[in-house]
């Protein structure tokens, strides 16, 4: 599942290919991808130019002349660029025919991804984006501390709660706990102010490093399209031995998610 760094990589790559293009028409082959009125979505986008692509958390926001729409890739969503007329893949669900003779094709084997028209000038302050917490890159300490300090939930579960910090998924939550040298089961209320500040700083650091790696790994679309998934250097997620002490990495299930940690380096304090 793409997390913030992967979605950022998709954004940057897409911008190189589709900026300033006119959407001549939109074809929707699986209606449920569109949240809201499908006819209105098609009508609004037709003959609009793609002015910019923004991102918040794991959402892409396509900014057009008069409208904007958001796209969430969920589990398997990805984009392809293909010359118009190329036969469709059976999982191509939304096709934007562009003015330059190419299609931007949204492909999604699991069909969980969603697109939705949003208010171009105010999307950040309306649902669903208004329900999201801050990105680690711009997080306000007091707000994050308040939410973490009053919770008895494990810190890893809190890292996955998109209303506290947004953009972190299971892989990076494991990595952040490892870099904190903190047992992922540690309860939020056990974290001091100093540790919460570290948590914000390390979250930012881990995501920034992954964005940088994505930028160097992915330069364009490959045969499989742009999904942003790239090989990131991971310290603990799906690893066998700890890169610091050499102990075996343990795997447990926490709130239904595979959780990896080093029992020696990530001390139990809860
Ligand atoms: Zn270790």
Automatic annotation (TrEMBL):
InterPro entries with a match to the protein in the record: DNA_glyclase_Znf_dom_DNA_BS, FPG_cat, FPG_Glyclase, FPG_N, H2TH_FPG, Ribosomal_uS13-like_H2TH, Znf_DNA_glyclase/AP_lyase, Znf_FPG/IleRS
Keyword Nucleus in annotation: no
UniProt EC number: 3.2.2.23, 4.2.99.18
UniProt cross-references to SUPFAM superfamilies, sorted A to Z: Glucocorticoid receptor-like (DNA-binding domain), N-terminal domain of MutM-like DNA repair proteins, S13-like H2TH domain
Limits of the Formamidopyrimidine-DNA glycosylase catalytic domain: 2-113
Domain of life (superkingdom): Bacteria
Keywords linked to the UniProt accession: DNA damage, DNA repair, DNA-binding, Glycosidase, Hydrolase, Lyase, Metal-binding, Multifunctional enzyme, Zinc, Zinc-finger
Cross-referenced PROSITE patterns: FPG_CAT, ZF_FPG_1, ZF_FPG_2
PANTHER family: FORMAMIDOPYRIMIDINE-DNA GLYCOSYLASE
Name of this protein: Formamidopyrimidine-DNA glycosylase
Organism in which the protein naturally occurs: Sharpea porci
């Amino acid at each position: 599942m793409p997390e913030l760094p992967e979605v950022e990589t998709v954004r940057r790559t897409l911008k190189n290919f589709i900026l300033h293009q006119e959407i001549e028409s939109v074809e929707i082959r699986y209606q449920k991808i569109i949240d809201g009125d499908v006819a209105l979505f098609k009508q609004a986008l037709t003959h609009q130019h793609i002015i910019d692509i923004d991102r918040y958390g794991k959402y892409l926001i396509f900014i057009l002349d008069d409208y904007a729409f958001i796209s969430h890739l969920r589990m398997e969503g990805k984009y392809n660029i293909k010359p118009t007329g190329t036969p469709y893949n059976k999982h191509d669900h939304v096709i934007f025919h562009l003015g330059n003779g190419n299609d931007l094709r949204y492909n999604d084997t699991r069909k969980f991804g969603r697109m939705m028209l949003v208010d171009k000038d105010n999307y950040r302050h309306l649902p669903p984006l208004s329900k999201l917490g801050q990105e680690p890159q711009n997080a306000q300490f007091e707000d994050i501390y308040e939410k973490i300090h009053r919770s008895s939930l494990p810190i890893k579960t809190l890292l996955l709660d998109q209303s506290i910090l947004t953009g972190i998924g299971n892989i990076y939550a494991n990595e952040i706990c490892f870099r904190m040298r903190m047992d992922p089961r540690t309860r939020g209320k056990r974290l001091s102010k100093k540790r919460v500040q570290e948590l914000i700083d390390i979250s930012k650091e881990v995501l920034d490093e992954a964005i940088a790696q994505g930028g160097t790994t992915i330069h364009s679309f490959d045969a499989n399209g742009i999904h942003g998934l790239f090989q990131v250097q991971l310290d603990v997620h799906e690893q066998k031995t700890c890169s610091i002490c050499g102990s075996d990495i343990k795997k447990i299930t926490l709130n239904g998610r595979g959780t990896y940690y080093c029992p020696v380096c990530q001390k139990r304090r809860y």
